[in-house]
Amino acid sequence: MPCGLAINEYYPQMYAQQKAFKVIPGLFTSMLVVQDLHAIRDILITQFENFPDRGFYVNHREALSANITHLDYKLWKPLRQRMSPSFSPAKVRYMFPTLLQVAAEFVTVFRDECHQQANIVEIYDLCARFTTDFIGNVIFGIQCNSLSEPKSEFRIEGDKAFYQLRKPHLDFFAVKFSRIMQFFNIRVFDKRSNEFFIRVFRQSLEHREKNNLRRNDFMDLLIDLKKQHENDEEMPLSLEMLAGQVFAFFIGGIETTSCTMSYALYELAKNHQIQDKAREEILQVLLKNQQQFNYECLKDLTYLKAIIQESLRLYPIVPTMPRICRRKCTIKTDAKSAVTIKPDTPVLIPIYGVQHNPDFYPQPDRFLPERFTEEENANRDPCTFLAFGGGPKICIGELLARMLITLGLAMLLSEFRFSMCERTPQELAFDPENMFILYVKGGIHLKVEILKKS
Ligand code: HEM
Q: Which UniProt key words apply to this protein (predicted)?
């Protein structure tokens, strides 16, 4: 079992005993698992300034590791402030035409795969090729071509870099020995991965600068930031550092969205009634919009959105979320007690445990999108759904992810029917080597029936 999931095994007993915190002794430092919702809210939101970091190891001499997901508060805050506008609702909407184009190619490739594989399709890899091409386009500003070439350089390098993220021992050591590790220039990613992503970023940047191209996108924002901050002592933004940021968005966006799409399709293959109801809604929306998806019509796909929410509840891609306490502070709990936390204590939020709590989600192991109607949502504490994290550090790509997954699934469901086959597991088993995200090794095979002739 991935260690990010194993941490959640403490949660049911902690909840039953109304134990707000549990100390897990470690080799170098003890960690604190938090069960209580009031305390979780305090850590993520109310007392964010006392828990502003995730505590990941950063090597400032290595472009890929010095990225927004790893950086300490001092550098994270100005970067996040400057990058957030690129993921505003208006900017995300601006990316829709590109998404529509990539999604059309996705459907064509999906259909070809059905023909070639006698209708038994491994859906994860196809979804990842779709999300790679879209995220590569809107983040790097380039064509990754992984739908047309399954073994494209981007897919291979992205996968390799993603694999190298699974080094929790570095983060455990770093809690105490970060300076020594930096002194010995210990890297998170290998030299080739660093070189690949810096090279691609440099080429894209030079191409735009040389041809005076502007697309009003994330790359444009980075080019402007580079000009403004090149010689800024407080926040120096070199080409390498910007490449690291682009890399974080690329890696953070691809696997998370492709896993969510695959797990939703897997559940729909198991639950035909839910699948038929979703398809009915999608076909109605298409009928009202001259058989064309547009940005506005996504909001009418309320049942499909509930399906996505339920997939993220059942399978939160990041099952445990870390924070580090930076200042001694006191956290209150629902039971009106209080706990004092010492500086440098790693704190773990068991997202999977919270999202499988039967008091918040009755019959938590069942796939029931009806849990996410407006009324049900209004009656639930927002901290009971944390698949995108929470507080100022909440996933910056949430809106983009939701648009990508909704359109991708809507296009697939309008054209194909998904069922279980002999190769489909009864339950999903997550790769233990992939410590921090819920990832199924070997993919997910489904039977796919083509509904519409091309
Ligand atoms: C279903 C899809 C996704 C899920 C489940 C997901 C989940 C998460 C979670 C749990 C965090 C940590 C939040 C926290 O610490 O409070 C996070 C952070 C982040 N995500 Fe996502 N994510 C998704 C898609 C994306 C996409 C599409 C992008 C970019 C294109 C992205 C980029 C990032 C970045 C850059 C951060 C770090 C933010 C910061 O430190 O300020 N994510 N995501």
A: Endoplasmic reticulum, Heme, Iron, Membrane, Metal-binding, Microsome, Monooxygenase, Oxidoreductase
